[in-house]
Write a structure and sequence with these properties.
Elements: E1 10-13, H1 17-25, E2 34-36, H2 47-55, E3 58-65, H3 66-71, E4 84-92, H4 111-116, H5 123-130, E5 133-137, H6 140-148, E6 154-161, H7 164-179
The structure holds thiamine diphosphate.
Thiamine diphosphate (TPP) is lined by residues 14-18, 42-45, 65-68, 91, 93, 96-98.
Length: 180
């Protein structure tokens, strides 16, 4: 995203792992990308509606995990009144990836149902129900192409599927390289 988003693009970054990954890994740039987020209580509530408010009258991107998006999926109900465009980059790692970084992740059978809490929502169907354009992203090239051009109107969801455990391990490896 840092490499391909058009200049001056507003990006709403959801709480949980997205905001941390952006903070840790988003490179410094000179294209005036406008990162926006709500820290403090760090809630994952209201994420979609807030991003829609941000783009109303213009356009922008929401970077979010699956649970944060689902928490506020009724935010899609405003789509007919939206003037402008929102592209959602959904990192679907089937639950709360952030908790994979905690010691509790080693404690099954409790971790998956009580902490990771994977959901079974089909995002393509959810999008269809709300008149939201959906696309499953398979490659970085495909994602980059989509993030270079933006429609004028409506909501578009780009689903990027990932593996929670592998992500956590890769993040730890990267942080290890940066911090040592
Ligand atoms: C309103 C609210 N409920 C619960 C939490 C606790 N919580 C923090 S992160 C998180 C999981 C978020 O998962 P997801 O949005 O999929 O992001 P990931 O960490 O997988 O990237 C939860 C439930 C919270 N921060 N806010």
């Amino acid at each position: 995203m840092a490499q391909v988003l058009p200049a001056n693009m507003p990006v709403w970054i959801a709480n949980s792992t997205p905001v941390r990954d952006v903070e840790w890994f988003w490179p410094v740039g000179d294209r005036g990308i406008k990162p926006c987020f709500n820290r403090g209580a760090n809630g994952i509530d209201g994420t979609l509606s807030t991003a829609l408010g941000m783009v109303h009258g213009g356009h922008g991107v929401l970077l979010t995990g699956d649970l944060a998006l689902l928490h506020d999926s009724n935010g899609f109900l405003i789509r007919p009144q939206l003037r402008g465009h929102l592209t959602i980059v959904l990192i679907n790692n089937q639950g709360g990836g952030i908790f994979e970084m905690l010691p509790i992740a080693d404690f099954e059978p409790y971790f998956e149902p009580f902490f990771a809490t994977p959901q079974s929502v089909n995002f393509e169907t959810l999008c269809a129900a709300h008149g939201v354009t959906y696309e499953l992203i398979h490659t970085w090239t495909q994602l980059a192409e989509r993030l270079r051009e933006f429609p004028e109107q409506g909501i578009r969801l780009l689903e990027v599927r990932s593996d929670r455990q592998q992500d956590a391990q890769q993040r730890l490896n990267l942080l290890d390289q940066v911090l040592t």
